[in-house]
Amino acid sequence: MTSIVNRKMQALRSRRDGNVAVMTALVLPACISVIAIGVDYGHLTLERRAMQVAADLTAIAVASDMAHAETAALSHIENNRLNLVLKTPQGWKAPSGALVPEASIIGTTGRVTLEKGRYVANAALGVDQRFQAGVAPSDAVRVTVEQPGTLFFASMFTTPPVMSAVGTAAMTKTAAFSIGSRLASLEGGLLNAILGKMLGTTLDLKALDYRALATADLDLFQLTRGLASDLNLTAVTYDEILATEITVPQLLTAILRHGGLSSSTTTLVSKIRQSLPASGKRLSLARLIDLGTKGHLRIDAPTGLGIKVGVLDLLQSSAALANGTDLVKVDTKLDLPGLGSVDLALAIGEPPVGTPLHRVGEPGQAVRTAQVRVALAIKIDGLADLLGIRISLPLYIEVAHAEAKLAGIQCHGGKASHATVTIDTVPGVAEVSIGQVDAAALKNFGSSPRVTKAKLVESGLLTVEGLASVDIGSAQVRKLTFTPGDIAVGTTKNVSSSGLLTSVTQSLLANLEAEIRLPLLSLMTDKVVQAALAKTLGAVTPSIDALLERILAVAGMRIGEADVRVTQVDCANPVLVQ
């Protein structure tokens, strides 16, 4: 019996009939499972891609109208018939705007979450750090879409996964803004003396002439194209033209070619141009002007932007830049009550690198004035109580740069014509002293000149020495807001530090340490001299304040104050960002 079984088993071992059917029966369920998983995976991939498209397009729609983010998102969802609901402070909203219970959307409907914030286009930051949620003013939005996936076969042994996609969009917004100092009191004599020294010529313009130059505006793009023509530059960008070294006469020639200027302004510019030597010190306008991303455009490409700068502002800053740190020395007599002759030494520092006076920038970028130092020796007719002895008042003023930072641009309705611009401004803080300084040390901006006690009065009757120093202004940030109307007409707004109600000269006199020396047989006393000194200096306080203001204004500065202007806004279409 055993042998029979063995023979049958040996016969079966040698047979191969039906082996394919057996293997197929074993492998087919696994193959079907793999195919089913592949179908589900492929469908999930397509759904994930559709979710990403929905997140991206919703982000762009919301970024186009940040002021009405919720309405923009719901409108986009409804117009595209997306199976999504929006998370709001009131609850989940359907595209129609109606609130829906959360229980009714679990597992069936996708959910959209909006996060408004600021986007910082800085390659030095990680991708996850560039979008700053909740930071105001908002210029970007992050949209998160969550939705359960659809399974056809795998649902027999697992639950559908919840997938998510994130889209971030930001509106590229730029503004043209500048900082400087208006000449509150235009006085031809001092302006002619200082500006003429900077330009290396003699000027003879009246106050009305300077007022005409101060109110005339130039379009920077048009001016730059004119420079390119004069310099025979073709196929170049605006930045390349600004980086080219030119002379002040070449700049004035380009201004004369600029259209739209009044005949009186053109005549004045021509008069200044003719007074200058053909050659002179060279300057690069790139130190004064930054056109931002528009600067990369070729001069034959449309910019879609017009940037204004005043003729006098550009002339002042260009003359100062061309003059470099060379001292501007002026000896003049002014028409200010009580003041005699004035010896002036003025030094203007190089413009800070990366922060020009005029720029087209995005929120976070800034403009700054240059640092200014002034040494004055003022002769004052006074001390009538003391036989008419003249006072010599040496002053030293050092003004730090003022700064204006573009804090935010609100493109209401996505339109530049409705935009509001916010500027954070820090006026220039000043150190003002009564004392003697070495004029040669003024132009070394790497160190501060030493202020020493000075002789205010020196005669056979008496000697008075004095020293005083005060800090004027504060580094507190002041916020300026420019409305669409302000921007349209190029309104200049002023910001000043607190505590400037008292004049600079009064503050100095209050801190004056005077040392009085009288002859042994003198009939005068210290109290008499102090009273006479205080009376004389107090009488000319307004004149000294006016003198300081005029001098610094020519250099583009004012103590504890800054003038800011916004002339154009560009609200570009929103784009996806990372």
UniProtKB/TrEMBL annotation:
Segments forming domain Putative Flp pilus-assembly TadG-like N-terminal: 18-65
Keyword field: Membrane, Transmembrane, Transmembrane helix
Bilayer-spanning residue ranges: 20-39
InterPro entries noted in UniProt: DUF2134_membrane, Tad_N
One protein family per Pfam: Tad_C
Segments forming domain DUF2134: 111-169
Protein name: Pilus assembly protein TadG-related protein
